Amino acid sequence: MVTAGKYSVLVIEDNPDIVANIYGFLEPLGYELDTARNGFAGLSLAADNAYDVIILDVMLPGIDGFQLCRKLRAELRKPTPVIILTAKDSIDDRVEGFDSGADDYLVKPFSLVEMEARIKALIRRSRGLQCQQSLGLGPLQVNLETCEVTRNGVKLKITPIAYKLLIKLLQESPRVLNRAMLEREVWGDDVPNSDALRTHIHTLRQALDNPFDAPMLKTVQGFGYQLTDPNA
Fold first, then answer.
1. What is the tens place of the pLDDT at every residue in 159-195?
2. pTM reported for the whole predicted model
3. 179-187 vs 196-208: helix crossing angle, rounded to 10
4. Would you place residue 131 in the very low, low, confident or very high pLDDT band (cuts 50, 70, 90)?
5. Lowest mean pLDDT among 11-25, 65-79, 119-133
6. Residue 148: is its pLDDT beyond 70?
7. Residue 141 sits in which domain range?
8. What is the CATH number of the domain that holds 27?
9. Most buried among 56, 118, 142, 218, by the most CB within 10 A?
C-alpha cells in the first residue's frame, strides 16, 4: 500500500492559487513538493532530480506542458509518471496529452482528493515496475530505468505511446491482449473515438519488426495482439 511521507512531487504550474491549493492539501499529508512556474524551469528540475510524480500544467510560459512532456520522454528518457492538468476537456486534447507521454489527465477545476488518489495509483504502478530494472523476451531488452529498447543489441526508437504498449505486451507475453485491454493501458477511461490504437500498433511494429527478419509483434485475427520470441 502506498502512503505519503517520503514521496516527492514536482508541480509545474504558473497559477499561484492552484499551486497554493496543492501545497495546502498535500504537504500536511507528508508529501515533499517542488514548484516551477514556467516550462523551462520545470524541465530543468525534472531533468536534475528524481521525483515520484510530476503534476504538469499544459498552458505554461516558455514551453507548454505537451512539449515539456515530449522532451522528458524522448530526449531525457525520464520515466517519471506525469499527470497533465488542463482546462481543455476535448478528446483531441486528451489524446495529445497521452501521445506526449503523460500517464494521467485531470481537467480543471479538479478535486484534490481525486488528484491524490491518482498520485498514489501512479506511484503503485511505477514502484511495481521499478522492482525490475529490465524486461526481456528473446532478442528484445527494455531498460526500465532509462526506457532504452534494444533488439539484437540495436537501439530502437520507440514513441511514448508505443513504449506503453510494448511494456504491457512484454509483461503479458505470450498472452494475447485484446483491443480493450491495450486501450485501457494507454488511455484509461478516455479512449479516443478514432482508431488510434491501430495507428500506434503500426508505429510499434515499424520500430520493432521492420528492420529484422522475424516478427515479434503478431496480430491474432479476431482476438488481439501478442508479443512472441522469434527464436522460440
1. 888 998 999 999 888 999 998 889 888 877 677 766 8
2. 0.63
3. 90
4. low
5. 119-133
6. yes
7. 134-227
8. 3.40.50.2300
9. 56
C-alpha cell at 8: 516527492
Q: In terms of domains, do 91 and 143 share one?
A: no
